[in-house]
TrEMBL record:
Organism name: Halapricum desulfuricans
Ranges that cross the membrane: 66-93, 108-126
Coiled-coil annotated spans: none
Keywords: Membrane, Transmembrane, Transmembrane helix
Predominant location: membrane
Subcellular locations according to the entry: Membrane
Protein's name in the database: Putative membrane protein, DoxD family
Pfam entry (one): DoxX
Bilayer topology annotation: Multi-pass membrane protein
GO cellular component: membrane
Domain of life: Archaea
Length: 149
């Protein structure tokens, strides 16, 4: 549970900080990723910065905030952990080449932790998922258990 709360706070704070800034944009970061020597997929980052920043900014801000909030309250933990891992994968790939490591950095550690949180079903431990799994909606639709946990 502690790890779920800590990871939740990391995501929630990163997202809410961007939301409250008012003028935050990923465009500068993406252009930096595109122009960095040795960057992976420079064309992808440049295209995202030039053509899709209007979509990337809210996805990033709200994605971080909602993943963090879901982890904190323990709601749809597996679903949230999965999407948190996707966000971290994009950060990892856009940060190449790594400054302090050859292959592994904090983003990979976050991905591993999030998969562990989801696999363990950490939302059932002092989380909303424990309650949700006992509702008629989930009991009548067992596939919903895959997003809870």
């Amino acid at each position: 549970m502690t790890l779920r709360l800590v990871m939740g706070w990391v995501f929630f704070y990163a997202g809410i900080d961007k939301l409250l800034a008012g003028d935050w944009s990923a465009q500068g970061y993406l252009m930096g990723a595109a122009s960095r020597e040795g960057s992976l997929f420079p064309g992808l980052w440049e295209t995202m910065a030039q053509n899709y920043v209007g979509l990337i900014d809210p996805l990033n801000m709200w994605g971080l905030t909602l993943v963090g909030l879901a982890l904190i309250v323990g709601a749809a933990v597996r679903w949230s952990a999965f999407w948190g891992s996707v966000i971290m994968l994009f950060y990892y790939l856009s940060g190449y080449p790594l400054e302090n490591s050859l292959l592994i950095d904090s983003h990979v550690v976050y991905i591993a932790l999030l998969f562990g949180i989801g696999a363990f079903g950490a939302g059932r431990i002092l989380g909303v998922d424990e309650y949700l799994e006992r509702t008629a909606v989930v009991e009548n639709n067992p596939w919903l258990r895959y997003v809870l946990g």
